[in-house]
UniProtKB/TrEMBL annotation:
Domain of life: Bacteria
Name used for this protein in its record: N-[(2S)-2-amino-2-carboxyethyl]-L-glutamate dehydrogenase SbnB
Organism: Mycolicibacterium agri
InterPro entries: NAD(P)-bd_dom_sf, ODC_Mu_crystall, ODC_N
GO cellular component terms, semicolon-separated: cytoplasm
One Pfam family it belongs to: OCD_Mu_crystall
Amino acid sequence: MKRPIYISADTCEELLDPQSAAELAERALAWEAAGKVTYGQVRALKMKVPDTGFRFHSKVVALPELGVAGARVVGYTTAPDGSRPRASETTRLIVLMDIHTGVPLAIVDEHYNYALRTAASVGVAARIVRPEVPTLGMIGAGVVARAGIKIMLTQLKVERLLVHSRTLARCQALVELAATMAPTVDVTIAESSAQVLAESDLVVMATTASSPIQVGPLPEGLVICALGSNEIDAAGYLSADHFIVDDWAQTKAASDIAAMLEAGHDLAGRLTATLPELVHNSAPNWSDNDSVIIRTEGMASQDIAFAHHAWREYTQ
């Protein structure tokens, strides 16, 4: 048997640009809406190792449109307060297989693809919901936030960008990235996350927060793209005019959402649409005064589509 190719995260970065990532994410969401994605009988295999904080989960999915299946393997260790490590301190691999022969095609380190996929999912949704954003806010400055800047500046019309993080050097790196990508956008480092929330029309939260950043009802017209857990409290979710998730089955199992549901908060009753439904219906008739929360847990179909793209570009 021919050995599978190993494709590193650095190589993936060379092979995938933000615009192509958004197109891939949108295509995978369209396949989801059309029922063209095959999942395993058990959607996710999960494991916790007692007394270590270690967490493992794996998903398998087939994309007949591409002729491939893939298994996603993720491992990381949580802190005592439940917070997760930075993306670079985790295991994230895709095993890509040919569904016609069963032959392994590649093992893809998806650290770069994961960050770009996470941002691309909400970027596509944000473009549909609110394509023109006078002020874009970014809370967080890690690899996912960096991917978020890349995606949002390709998907939206932005006049001003506000960034905030506890690490000034990382904020400055985001400023430099934005200045390179969009020289006409006014970029400012905010003094606090509260300033970002108060002055922005759309806010991307890409953090490893252990307590909510958005506390209380959302202001009128604010769109929040939540890429992490623990970023919004129950009052925030319940106040949103529209609540969009990629897959409610995954969202309701997330630790922060599960705790809210257990406390009796009817978050399911606030759901407006899933990301596949939003892409399928294309243009919702919503007011710019409506507040919106877009939350993603990540869909394995996108992970496999991104891994396939890396394999195809690498082998060609």
